[in-house]
């Protein structure tokens, strides 16, 4: 605690405070604009750090990280377009709440639980980093495969009323994830001679296309009267839009989601894009009223925003303790360490302990700045709902195209955006859940890559999947999820239907 307080004191200079404030605001803008992200914000500002001291550099970069992750909730709630893959699950209940005239309330819930989730992840990071990092380094591809596979079984849980359509959408997502060079052996698959497909489809343009372009197309074909929102209800909401009693009632959901976010965050390659969806399903499964999810319920926003922000602390653990980035933004931060002549890893705590605790303090201070900026900006942000759609949608689609191109400076990503937009529109028309497709698309590569690595490591033997305790437990949980889902959504309804017919 003494070292943490010392780091906070070192940050309390006028220049550092200005840098953190600017960084948080810019990060929120990057997070809110579809196609941009906290990773891109940090990458663009890395050259700026050449002219700053080490302390000032990390104060700015950490602020961009915090703001970028939280900013994704803005567009997810207001226009049903996640600013980044970390905010996909926020659209499920955030936008329905906004359409019900409670945009201010939805944003308030998102902002507050973004802050609380960040603090939760940081608390775990500060007090348990060495233990969690040493645990993470013992995990092998067997455990990563089992975890990815378990997450994949959750597709059935987010499939809605029709499990078969959910599974079809999930398998379609997995199929799209196999396009390009295969992991490990590099065999080219399903490219049809197109060189651009060698690396497959980039995640960000694909997800933005599936949500942004699709959503715009679906709204364009609606009558204008269908978009009207209850203005009177919106004007009566004050503060964050919810009571202290409602906030305390979310304690269980918050702890479950934040724990999932932290754990998934510190597993390299996973990150908030997976954490928010897994946490959403977990909270739905433990809820007393799971049928209300997707209709504009507070629980859904809490689950998504708590988990994706808690993943910040989780992702920082392997970066600082092992020198292994947990997600895209921490990979950029690893570059910042190199620029300033530092080596992230176990020795960093000994050679530059003051910097480590300064980063801890910066994460906490930037979280406070973030919640203040977003709280006072809510009323201004909600005004976006008053913009006529014939003006709003062309602006949004333009920003999406620019963001898709800026991902890799490649025109092919723009075509990816449009193709996945059309695919999403078709899926919406035949009632195939896009959430299942995205879950399959995100997890397909992880499952295949880790399965191949595990089998290669075991020289073709599948015994380690049974003999390694963590792997075995995760696979058993996955099997239980499958059996329970089949029972609840297929067998039980069939038996009830048969019983009702016999009684009739």
Sequence-ordered SSE layout with sheet pairings:
Elements: H1 2-11, H2 14-32, H3 38-45, H4 54-78, H5 90-138, H6 141-152, H7 163-177, E1 180-181, E2 188-189, H8 203-220, H9 231-235, H10 244-249, H11 251-265, H12 272-285, H13 298-322, H14 328-339, H15 348-351, H16 353-382, H17 389-408, H18 411-429, H19 434-457, H20 464-467, H21 469-503
Antiparallel strand pairs: 1-2
Helix pairs in contact: 1-16, 2-4, 2-16, 3-4, 3-14, 4-5, 4-13, 4-16, 5-11, 5-13, 5-16, 6-19, 6-21, 7-19, 8-17, 8-18, 8-19, 11-12, 11-13, 12-13, 17-18
What does this structure look like?
There is one protein chain. The radius of gyration is 22 Å and the shape is globular. α2 runs parallel beside α4. The protein has one domain. Helix content is 73%, strand content 1%. By secondary structure, the protein is mainly alpha-helical.
**N-to-C SSE series?**
HHHHHHHEEHHHHHHHHHHHHHH
Which percent range fits the helix content?
Answer: over 70%
Mean pLDDT reading: 81
Shape: globular
- Distinct helical segment count: 21
